[in-house]
Amino acid sequence: MPRPIPRLQRRCALALALTTSLLGTGVVLAPQSSAAPTAATAADADGAAIVGENWLDARTVDLMVDSPAVGATLPVRVILPTRYAAQPNRTWPVLYLLQGAHDDYTSWTRETDVAAFTADKDVLTVMPSSGPTGIPTDWWNNGSADAPDYETFQVDELMGLLAQRFRAGTKRAVAGVSTGGYGALAFAARHPGTFGAAASYSGILDTTAFGMPTVLNAIVAREQLPPQTLWGSPLFQRDNWTRHNPYAQARHLKGTKLYVSQGSGLPSDDLGNIEGAVLEGVLWSQAHRFARQLEALNIPAQVHFYNGGVHNWPNWRQEFKASWPTLAAGLGLR
Question: Any signal peptide, and if so, which residues (predicted)?
């Protein structure tokens, strides 16, 4: 895969400086050696419970889920397969769609035609909340045992509930935008065998690459949360950062069907979204680095790097549909 040429590297360095002024400051650190991920877990609600259902139409329901892992009640949107009621004894493959930063669980139905797109596809589509930052992970919170754990909520608790309530099967795929793209690849790497496919659209795939701790800490700060509560200090809790880094855990993606897309951001035709262009440019180099890591590990991936493009839904809508063959293969669909 092509390496970014020096001009692009200089451009991304400039973009990082601009993004820092827009989003905040943070510490940077090169990635260290990887640690072993957690094993794939069987579907088990693990104390979680559905405490509310609001049906929006015949296929779409908003759930309220009491999550012990997060310590809160969280919303989840579910779109049923069209033939769900007609096939009461069948289990269904599950597609997780993860939100981006500072958004919510409704973003995929608000910004895309996912309900119409999946109408002829035999898949249970699930859009869980990842909290206000949109980073679906187990937070550090200074080592507190009560830190919110969105990863356990989504990978363990919710999967168990979906199996109990909606006949979710064991074929799964996960995709996400921005911080949700991070979540998709992190989940697949940290829970090998749980997801047959994973797709990232403009995701943070190398969390300790130059500038990425700055971006992540800025996301945390924007929600007025204490600094370094995500995974701790990139210096003093470096092992924790490594455990959550898709780049460092990439070897565990072997056997998972992968799709990775990323725009260069600058130059951009969207002059009304300079911040989105800058952020996309900042993510450009680390996406290339992640792709080269996959190549070095002989892990195949469908990769789409495109010039221009900003950090926004018009690009992600196209990339989601372009990634569907990869996701469908992981779901066992034709």
Answer: 1-30
Q: Are 74 and 153 in contact (CB under 8 A)?
A: yes
Which residue in 320, 328, 323 sits closest to 120, CA to CA? 328
CA–CA dist 75, 129 (Å, integer): 6
Cβ contact 56:106 at 8 Å: no
Sign of the C-alpha dihedral, residues 113, 115, 120, 121?
positive
The mean pLDDT of the chain is 88
Host H or E run for residue 309: none
Strand 92-98 and strand 302-306: the pairing is unpaired
Q: CA 7 to CA 26: how far, in whole Å?
A: 25
pLDDT computed for residue 191 by the predictor: 99
Decide if 175 contacts 100 (C-beta within 8 A). Answer: no
**CA dist., res. 54 & res. 301, Å (int):** 38
Using alpha carbons, select from 190, 114, 95, 110 the residue that is nearest to residue 150.
190
Distance CA 96, CA 265 (A): 26
Chain-centre distance of CA 219, in angstroms? 15
Condensed to tens digits (0 to 9), the pLDDT of residues 211-249 reads: 899 999 999 999 999 989 999 999 999 999 999 999 999
Please report, to the nearest 10 degrees, the dihedral formed by the alpha carbons of residues 322, 328, 330, 334 taken in order: -130
C-alpha distances out from residue 168 to 73, 81, 171, 325, Å: 21, 11, 8, 21
Q: How far is Cα of residue 223 from the mean position of the Cα atoms in its chain? A: 18
pLDDT of residue 3: 34
Residue 14: pLDDT over 80: no
Best CA proximity match to 180, nearest among 199, 157, 194: 199
